[in-house]
Each structure stands twice: as structure tokens, then as C-alpha cells.
Design brief:
The complex is a heterodimer of chains A (257) and B (335).
Chain A: H1 6-11, E1 24-40, E2 48-63, E3 66-80, E4 86-100, E5 108-123, E6 131-151, E7 154-165, E8 167-171, H2 190-197, E9 199-201, E10 206-219, E11 223-236, E12 242-256
Chain B: H1 3-23, H2 33-47, H3 51-54, H4 58-66, H5 75-87, E1 95-97, E2 102-103, H6 107-110, H7 118-126, E3 131-133, E4 136-141, E5 144-149, H8 158-168, E6 173-177, H9 186-193, E7 201-208, E8 221-225, E9 237-241, H10 248-257, E10 262-266, E11 276-280, E12 286-290, E13 292-296, E14 310-311, H11 316-320, H12 325-332
Parallel strand pairs in B: 5-6, 6-9, 9-10, 10-14
Antiparallel strand pairs in B: 1-2, 1-12, 3-4, 4-5, 7-8, 7-13, 11-12
Helix pairs in contact in B: 2-4, 4-5, 9-10
The chains are: A mainly beta (257), B alpha/beta (335).
């Protein structure tokens, strides 16, 4: 899966410069290629792997020592297991990062994050209950390391951003490969469907984390182009657990607004 | 800052992360014979929906067949053991599919008389001038519209139904022949049944497995037939079924059984009331089994078949003379 928020990291402005303490807003768009691996034991005990395409958009706001980043990412593609069976997947994620830089010279920022993700897949050769969907929204700590340096006449910034999701709720696929339980055979309105389908997201039942190193090259006053690698892992336990692991390599273009 | 002091650690970081992509998911499941057997047994144990109805002790079944499994056994021998185990479910919706064979349980019709002869129907009832309205072959016989539908896999469109309903207007009745129709899409069954009612009505209830215990099911949910928008036929309808009327065809038979204008003639349907769920084994074989239950309004499981209003068998002497006993009986109901 390439992308996940890939660029989102790159997107955020450099906190190590003087501009860190001023207010700035930036948007970034990007895309890339994703290497994805997935297991869904509601279908098969085998690992499905493959390449996917992704696109993303990020908005970031830096004010004084505080930084906010919102990143939207979509990816889709076909994965395959060792017997050649296909799994068609798409996912949509929305990540919010709320970071604080303790003092101006520090390359580190700390804070918290909120991750929302909906994942849908369908498998070849299964005629019923072929689609499975899950969703989670969760909260946890986040951190960023940012270092700016010169290379010839160019100004580069290296960033690593990480987040770990610890608490929230998730809606797994139902016991029989199908839509989440409340959205299938027990429909009593959207609210009840969510309540009937939701489980507590906590270590031991579910986890999600991401790590995103990136390098960006400054182009003019507020623009930059970036190269990032985004890694993301999630695991949702239920009667049949599902796990996803994906790393994406992508390019992004960031503009000040 | 020297660029090398930056590039080298970053390169290692990226390399390390790339290696993690798959590592965190662990290894593929083992494809040795005992692991495959246990995986199949466990999944059926947790998701199959008719253990209680059929009085099957799945633990006992598993213990008995597990003794025949050992790692390194030939794959065709393993297939045979797994198929034997699955066949104890006595369910036509249970299959194991490998590149070299597909196990099945056809006892629901092979243990009963065959009440259908396509040659007799083609030569003596449809004849040469029948209409082919999409998948619905039809002919007017003695002012009754005879409709022969071979598979609910074949899509029925609104245009097909409009044509069929218009052709039926003014006739004494309609015969829908779904003998030897092994099922298909529920949507086609609903569309066809919707042509014969002005009002929505309940025809059954469904529930699905929601957990691994035998009694872990959702609540019962209504299954209804809704009238279609467009031409309809509200006169008398006779539906012909036999033991090969299976799965969606069983649902259709029950839909029509609950229609006050319709009667069922022939032999009871073959059942197949559970919607099958699928799974894959570590060696790539696919299996399926029933994961839902459907009952009639009266609470009878459709898995056991839908009874007919008039039990009529195809007599060999009639068949020899080119006569379909069941169609003839159906025609007599319009007199």
C-alpha cells in the first residue's frame, strides 16, 4: 500500500527554522506505490501480497510551537496469495496529528494522533459473502523528529513521524464473511447498527501504528517537493482476525497557502 | 552536516522498514495434511448452521476422520478424507473444490425418483414454436401459459417479465416449471414471484451465524415478496417442483406456496435453505458450507425442502408415451 499518508509527513513544515514560531499553513498532494500484505482469516489463512496505487492530500497548520496535520489517503489494488487467488482491496484513511514542540531548538515534537480507517476487500471465486469491511477510529501518542540541513545550495529537511494507536473502537467484519454484523442481518437503523457492530479498540484486541520517514527539498519560500516512505500496520482481532502491513514510497508537492 | 552522516542511517531505516512489511504478518499457514484437516474442521465447527437440526456430533465426526490423516499423505487421499467428513453434513451446499475434483453431496435428489424429462417437454409441450423470453421458455397450452425456467442463474429482466405477463393476460392460468432448476440468484426468484401478487407478504425468516457456538445466531429477520411495478398476472398459478429444485429454487417454491393464488405440484423440493459461506485452505482448495438458516412462516426449515400441495410423480408409462404426468395434472387444475 503505498501511501497512506505518505506525504502527510512531508507536508508539515520544518519546525526547526524561525518560521516554526510563526503561523503557516500548507497543503500537500501526492501519490505513490504501495507494497501491501494482508491476512483475513475470514477468507483464508494465507497472506495476500501485491502492489497498490495511492493518492493523498494533506493540510497542515503550524502556529508557534503547535502543529496540526490532517491527512487523507486512498489506496486500491489487487493482492494475490501463493495460489494465485486475488483479493481486491481499497482503503480510505484519515489521520489527524496534534504536535507540540517543547522549545525552539528541539528537533522533537510530541503529541497525540487520531486515526480513522475503512478497509474493504473482496475475494475471487467466493460467490456469497465475498466482501468484507472493517473500520476503526482510535487515539494514541505521536512524535516527530525534524532536522534541516544544507546540501550545496539546497535546503533539505529530514523528518520522521510516528504514531501508535491505543484506544478507540473498531467495527470488524461479521462472523460469516460479510458486512459488519449490525449492517447485515440485524438492521435497526444506522445508530443501532454501529452499536451492534462496535468493539473496544485497545492493546490486545487491536492495534495500529505508522512510521514515516521523509526527505523534502525546499523550492522557494513556501514550496517543497518530498520523497517519503510510509509504513503502516494494523491488526483487528475478532472471531476471524485481519492484519494489514503496508509500506509506500511516494512523492509529494507541498505549497504554502 | 555531512550528507553521508544522514544518508546512511536513513538508508538503513528504509531497508529495515521494507523488510518489516511482511515480517509482521508472520508466515503463511502450514499446508501439511493435519493442519489443513484441523483448519477445515474448525471453520465448519464455528460457522456451519445445521448441526443441531441434523443431529450431527461434529466432534465425533472429526475424531473419526482425523485418525485417517497423517502428514505427507498423498493429496488425493487427503481430499478423499476431507470430502468424506464434509459429506456427513448431508448438505447439497457443501463442497470441497480442488484442481482435480469437486466433492458434493447429491443425496437430496439422487436418492429419489427423477420427475423430469426434458425431451418429453421439448417435443410434446414446448414443441417448435415456443417463445424464448430471455431465460423463460414459454408456450400456450390449452389457454394456459406454460413457462419453463432452467436456472435462477439466468437473469430475468423487467422487459422479460413485462412480455411474459402481457402474454398471460386473458389465459386460464400460468404454470411455472422449475423442476430440475438447481438455483442461482435470489434476485431472479424475487423478481419472478413479484409478478404474481398485488401485496407484499411474508414468506420466511432468515438468521445467520454470529459466533462459534452452535446456538450463536442473529435474530430472525423477515423475508418478504414485494409486488413489482409493471404488468402482473393475478390469476391462478401452478408451480412444478421436484427434488432437483434446490437452493434459490426452494426459496422460490416457498414464496409461491405463501401466495394464495398459487399451488405447488410434483415432488417436494430438494432443500438447500442455507446460504453457503466460503473458505480457502492453506493448500489453495476452496470449500463452502451453509452458514444461515431459513424457515417458513410456519417455522419449518427450508433446508429440508418445501412440500407440495399435490404430490404427483412422473409415471414411466406416461413418460414412454411422451406424456408428462405432472404437467397434465397441473393443466387439469385449470379445468
Amino acid at each position: 500500500m503505498y501511501s497512506l499518508i505518505l506525504v502527510s509527513l512531508v507536508v508539515s513544515g520544518s519546525p526547526s527554522s524561525e518560521a516554526t514560531l510563526t503561523e503557516s499553513r500548507m497543503i500537500s498532494v501526492g501519490g505513490g506505490l504501495l507494497s501491501a500484505h494482508q491476512v483475513d482469516r475470514g477468507y483464508s489463512p494465507l497472506i495476500f501480497s501485491g502492489r497498490q496505487g495511492s493518492a493523498n492530500a494533506t493540510y497542515s497548520k503550524l502556529r508557534g510551537h503547535r502543529e496540526r496535520v490532517w491527512a487523507l489517503e486512498y489506496s486500491s489494488g489487487t493482492l494475490q496469495n501463493r495460489h494465485g487467488r486475488n483479493l481486491e482491496c481499497w482503503s480510505l484513511s484519515w489521520l489527524g496529528l496534534f504536535l507540540y514542540q517543547p522549545h525552539e531548538e528541539s528537533p522533537f515534537s510530541w503529541g497525540w494522533s487520531n486515526s480513522n480507517n475503512i478497509n474493504r476487500r473482496t475475494i475471487d471465486d467466493f460467490l456469497n459473502y465475498t466482501g468484507r469491511t472493517d473500520y476503526f477510529t482510535s487515539f494514541g501518542p505521536a512524535a516527530k523528529y525534524s532536522l534541516s540541513f544544507g546540501f550545496g545550495k539546497h535546503e533539505l529537511t529530514f523528518q520522521v513521524l510516528g504514531h501508535l494507536q491505543l484506544l478507540g473502537f473498531y467495527i470488524p467484519s461479521s462472523h460469516v464473511s460479510s458486512m459488519p454484523r449490525g449492517f447485515g442481518y440485524e438492521q435497526n437503523g444506522f445508530g443501532n447498527a454501529v452499536l451492534n457492530s462496535a468493539f473496544l479498540f485497545h492493546p490486545g484486541s487491536a492495534i495500529n501504528f505508522g512510521l514515516r520517514p521523509g526527505l523534502k527539498l525546499k523550492l522557494g519560500e513556501n514550496n517543497s517537493v518530498g520523497l517519503s516512505y510510509l509504513y503502516d500496520y494494523s491488526s483487528l482481532s475478532h472471531v476471524h482476525s485481519s492484519q494489514r502491513s503496508r509500506g509506500s514510497l511516494g512523492l509529494s508537492l507541498t505549497m504554502g497557502i | 552536516m555531512r550528507i553521508s552522516s544522514f544518508v546512511i542511517p536513513v538508508a538503513f531505516l528504509l531497508l529495515g522498514l521494507t523488510a518489516c512489511e511482511r515480517y509482521l504478518l508472520g508466515q503463511n499457514a502450514s499446508d501439511d495434511a493435519t493442519s489443513i484437516f484441523d483448519h477445515l474442521w474448525q471453520d465448519v465447527h464455528e460457522r456451519y448452521s445445521y448441526f443441531e437440526l441434523k443431529g450431527i456430533d461434529w466432534h465425533e465426526v472429526g475424531d473419526r476422520h482425523r485418525e485417517r490423516v497423517h502428514d505427507g499423505m498423498p493429496e488425493k487421499e487427503l481430499f478423499s478424507v476431507l470430502a468424506d467428513m464434509l459429506n456427513e453434513l448431508r448438505d447439497g451446499h457443501v463442497n470441497l473444490t480442488s484442481p482435480f475434483n469437486r466433492s458434493r453431496n447429491w443425496g437430496y435428489f439422487q436418492d429419489f425418483p427423477l420427475n423430469y424429462n426434458q425431451g418429453v417437454i421439448d417435443r410434446h409441450y414446448l414443441k417448435s414454436d415456443f417463445w424464448i423470453t430471455g431465460p423463460l421458455r414459454n408456450q400456450i397450452i390449452d389457454s394456459v401459459l406454460y413457462v419453463n425456467y432452467r436456472s435462477f442463474m439466468d437473469e430475468i429482466s423487467d422487459a422479460h417479465l413485462n412480455e411474459l405477463m402481457e402474454r398471460a393476460q386473458g389465459l386460464r392460468g400460468v404454470i411455472i416449471d422449475v423442476r430440475s432448476n438447481g438455483g442461482g440468484s435470489m434476485l431472479n426468484a424475487e423478481r419472478l414471484a413479484s409478478s404474481f401478487t398485488e401485496q407484499s407478504y411474508l414468506f420466511g425468516r432468515v438468521r445467520i451465524k454470529t459466533g462459534p457456538c452452535e446456538s450463536c445466531f442473529s435474530s430472525w429477520n423477515d423475508m418478504r415478496v414485494f409486488p413489482r411495478n409493471g404488468p402482473q398476472y393475478l390469476g391462478k398459478v401452478v408451480v412444478l417442483t421436484d427434488r432437483t429444485s434446490f437452493s434459490t429454487t426452494t426459496y422460490f417454491a416457498e414464496m409461491m406456496r405463501q401466495n394464495e393464488n398459487a399451488v405447488l405440484v410434483g415432488d417436494m423440493t430438494g432443500g438447500g435453505g442455507g446460504t453457503p459461506a466460503y473458505g480457502e485452505l492453506a493448500n489453495g482448495w476452496i470449500y463452502r458450507f451453509s452458514a444461515t438458516q431459513v424457515v417458513s412462516v410456519e417455522g419449518e426449515h427450508l433446508e429440508l425442502g418445501v412440500p407440495v400441495d399435490f404430490d404427483v410423480q412422473l409415471l414411466p408409462e406416461d413418460e414412454h408415451e411422451g406424456v408428462d404426468t405432472i404437467i397434465e395434472f397441473a393443466l387439469s387444475l385449470f379445468e
